C-alpha cells in the first residue's frame, strides 16, 4: 500500500509521486533526493526503452528510478539485468577522470602525509576526505578547486567542540590503489612504509607543510605520526629531496629543519606552491643570504681580533654571525675554550677522505700519539662513502657481464669484485643495516669508540691507514651485514639454472643475486620488503634497460606476495639469520614480524620453503645460503631446520657448496650453500 510522501527533486526537476512504505526515506533524504510530495508511476509502464532512457541517457541511478516507480531498488536492478542493460559505474555516470593527473597526485600524497584520509567505499573504490578549522576555510576552498572533478561535498562540522569544514570526494576506482598503499591492512592509521619516495615532490612537500607544518624560532617543523616506521619514511623522504632534518620523539613527535643549507633548500622547494592563506607559516627568521659563516670566519680575520683579546661574543657581534659559529671556527683553529675544566667539544669539519688521507700521511707513524692523532683527524672527517657515478656503475656492469665466473668440481673460479660498484651505486642503504644491537656501519663511523677500535684493528693487521680502508674495518668491528657478491651469484646461476630459465629470489637483499643473475642472461624475479628496496630495484631496471618479464621486483615479504602461476627454474636466495641481521625497523621485516624463534620458523622459514616448492618446476633446484647462528649462549640451528623442513616437504639435499667470504686480518672462511632438488615426479 502506498502512502503520501514528502516532495522531492531529481536532477532539479520536481515530481509528484507516492512513496512505498519499504523505501528507505531517511537515507534518500540524506542524499538530497526529497523535496515536495510526489506520486509514483505504475511499474508496468517501465519498459526496456524507458529504462534505457532513464538509466543510460539521463544517468539516473537505480534508487532514483525506484523512487519514480514506487518500488525497491532491488526490483529495478533485476529489471535492468532482465532488459540486458549493462551496469554503469558511478565513475562513468559522473564522468569522473580515469586517472589522477600528476599535480593532483602530489596534492593527494602531501595531504595524506598531513591531514588527509582515504576510506573504502566499495570492493574496488575509495574516497578522500579532509577536515580543517573554520579559520583555514580559504585553504580548504583551494583544495576543493583542485579536487573539482572528484569533489562531492563540503560540509560544516563540529569536532571536539570546535567548528570546522570537511571536504569529501566521490568514491572511485582511481583512489583505490592509494587507499591500498596507505592502509595495507585495510584498518587502523595511515602507514607510509609502502609509499614510493618519488611520490614526495616539491608540491607534495608544500602541501604536507601547509597541513602539518609550522614555524619555529629559526626554522620549520612538522608534527608527525608517533609510529617509528612512519617517522623513518618521512625522514627518508626529506633526505630524498636533499633536506637534512632532525627527528625529536620526546613528547609529541616532530621533525625540525634548522640548518641553513637545508632550510634554504626547503624554502626554494615549497615557496612557489604555498597558498596565500598559509604564507604566515613561513614568517620566521630566515638564514642570511651571502657569505656562509664558515667562509667568513677565516684564520686571517679571526687572529687579529684574538690578539686584541676579543671574546667570541664580541667577534660574533662585529662580524654579524652567531656566537656558535665563532666557537666552531675557534675550535677548528685549535683555540682553547675559556671555561676551566670544560672538555673540548669534538667538531666535525666535514673533511673529505682525500684531505683526511693527506693529513694522516703527514703524521709520524712511530709517535706514541699516532693512534690519537689519526682518530682526531677521522672525527673531523665525513664518512668516506663516495658512491659510484652512473657511468662507473655501467662500466662495472660491463665487467660483470664479461666475467668468466663459474663453478666446477667443487671450486669457484673467475671470481672478482665485478658488480660490487653497481650495487653500491643503487643500494646505499646497506650501511644502515645492523648486526643485532650493534651500531650500523654508518652510525659507527661517527662513534669515537667504534672508530678507535677500527684504527687499532688497522694497526694490528698492518692494513693501509686510509679513511676508505678504516671504514672497511669499521664494518668488520660492528659486524655489519654484507652483500652477496654478484660474481658468486653469476657462477651459481650459470651452473644450476638452464639457459633462459627463470630465477626466483625470495629475499632479494642488496642486489648481488639480481645483478649476477641478469649478467648470466637469465630473467629474475625478486621479493624484498625493505622500504627503500622498491626504488633501488626500479632504478636498477631503468639503469640496465630491463623490464618485465626479464626483470620483476615485488616490494613485499615473500610469504605475502601473490606470484600467480609463476614457475621458476631456480630458487636462489640467502634469507635473514633470524634476528641477527636487522636490515631495517620496518614492521614487515621477519625479525620484527616474528619475534620468537618458533614464530620465525613457522611464520617465515616454513612458508619460504613451501612457497618455493609450489613455484619451482619439477626436477629443478632450490639453492639457499644460510648457516647456524648464536645469540649470546642461545644457539639457533637455522641450517638444520632448513634441511629438515625442506626434506619434509619433498626436497632432496643434493649437495652443499662452500662460498668463500671476504676476509680482513683473519683466516678466510666460508658459508654453506645448500642445493636441494625437487624430484621430477612429485
Strands, count: 25
Which residue ranges are poorly predicted, with pLDDT under 50 across at least 5 consecutive positions? 1-38, 339-349
Roughly what fraction of the amino acids lie in strands?
A: 15-25%
Supply the number of helical segments.
Answer: 28
Rg calculated over all Cα atoms: 32 Å
Question: Spatial order of the strands in the main sheet?
Answer: 18-17-16-19-21-25-24
Largest sheet descriptor: 7 strands, mixed
As a percent range, the share of helical residues equals 25-40%
Categorize the overall geometry.
flat
Structural class: alpha+beta
Distance between the termini: 67 Å
**What's the pLDDT, averaged over the residues?**
83
Please provide a written account of the structure.
- The protein is of the alpha+beta class.
- It contains 28 helices and 25 strands.
- The strands form eight sheets. A seven-stranded mixed sheet has the order 18-17-16-19-21-25-24.
- A hairpin with a 2-residue loop joins strand 22 and strand 23.
- Helix 21 crosses helix 22.
- It starts with a strand and ends in a 5-residue tail after the last strand.
Question: Keywords for this structure?
Answer:
single chain; 682 residues; seven-stranded mixed beta sheet; 28 helices; 17% strand; disordered N terminus
Fold topology:
Elements: E1 2-4, E2 8-10, E3 13-15, E4 18-20, H1 25-30, H2 48-57, H3 62-68, H4 73-82, H5 90-93, H6 102-113, E5 117-120, E6 126-133, H7 137-146, E7 151-159, E8 162-169, H8 176-182, H9 202-212, E9 213-215, E10 220-223, H10 228-240, E11 246-248, E12 254-257, H11 260-270, H12 293-296, H13 299-307, H14 312-319, H15 323-333, H16 353-361, H17 370-378, H18 390-402, E13 406-408, E14 411-413, H19 420-426, E15 434-435, H20 441-445, H21 448-461, H22 467-477, H23 486-496, E16 503-505, H24 512-519, E17 524-527, H25 533-544, E18 551-554, E19 568-573, E20 581-582, H26 590-593, H27 597-614, E21 616-625, E22 629-631, E23 634-636, H28 638-649, E24 652-660, E25 670-677
Parallel strand pairs: 16-17, 16-19, 17-18, 19-21
Antiparallel strand pairs: 1-4, 2-3, 5-6, 6-8, 7-8, 9-10, 10-12, 11-12, 13-14, 15-20, 21-25, 22-23, 24-25
Helix pairs in contact: 3-4, 6-9, 14-15, 17-21, 18-19, 21-22, 23-24, 27-28
